[in-house]
Amino acid sequence: MEASWLPAALELAAGGGAGLSPEKRAALGASLPLLRRDYRFERVWFWGRIRGVRGDYHIAEGLGPDRAAPRSRLYSFDCVEWSLLPPATEEMVAQAERLRGRFQGDPAAEYACAQINAEDAERWFGEGKEPVIKEEARLVATIEQIDRAVGIVPRGAFVKTPLGSVRENRNFEGLSLTEAKKLSSYFHFTEPVNVKNKTLLEKADLDPSTDFLDSLEHDIPPGSWTVQLEKGGTVVVLRSLLWLGLTFYHVPMTKQYGYIYFGTGEKNLDLPFML
Fold first, then answer.
1. How does pLDDT run across 119-132, given as a tens digit for each residue?
2. DSSP result, 155-175
3. What number of other Cβ atoms are within 10 A of residue 170's Cβ?
4. Which of 43, 76, 90, 179 is paired with 255 by a 20 to 30 Å CA distance?
5. What is d(CA 131, CA 116) in angstroms, rounded to the nearest whole number?
6. Where are the alpha helices (DSSP H) in 42-193?
7. Within 10 Å of residue 105's Cβ, how many Cβ atoms?
8. Are 107 and 139 in contact (CB under 8 A)?
């Protein structure tokens, strides 16, 4: 969620249980602009909170001119002092996918990477070393997983320039109410897969400047999203059943949209059996 819209955005997403104490909101209002200034970010998004056993991680993301470029991620326990996380690598993500259980709330905590074959253990950790993952690495890998799987934007909110960079669409004025209730009107804000696999005939119906991302209608398993009208039918809210705690909102016919995560950082592996 855009830092400047955070108070109003939290109210719109509150139906999903998302919330911060008045003290935390005040602290974010003061510290996020300082993050933007100190790190020279073009934008700062408040990403959400991952609950730990002994402490909660509050996450912020810093963005540059190219919105599709890798983001800088920071965490804080008190929403005042922030620490920069290392960039997420594919190895980190692969390791984190093997972990189960709650976060401890201690970046230095270590997890034994169970059920790992000898080849992967040697490649990831080195020969003869114990396969151990620090919670800091698990944290940034989990954020990356959630962003890839359920970080979404409305259709037309971003445009792809001829040079390949992704920018905010200045002409975007929001989806109509009819379009806002369709899953096909929302895209994953990550490297597309389905768009690349479409035939030339299918691509002919797409606008390459705005339809360059994958739509939610192709998500597997089907039914992993709920779409609801809230606030008297003035706000469309999408919630992920795959990553419980992810809430996206959009006010039709306006530029107001965003997503926020308030959860334990655990994927709902039972979803296929629940549908």
1. 555 555 556 566 78
2. TTSEEE-TTS-EEE-TT----
3. 8
4. 76
5. 8
6. 90-96, 118-125, 135-150, 177-180
7. 16
8. yes
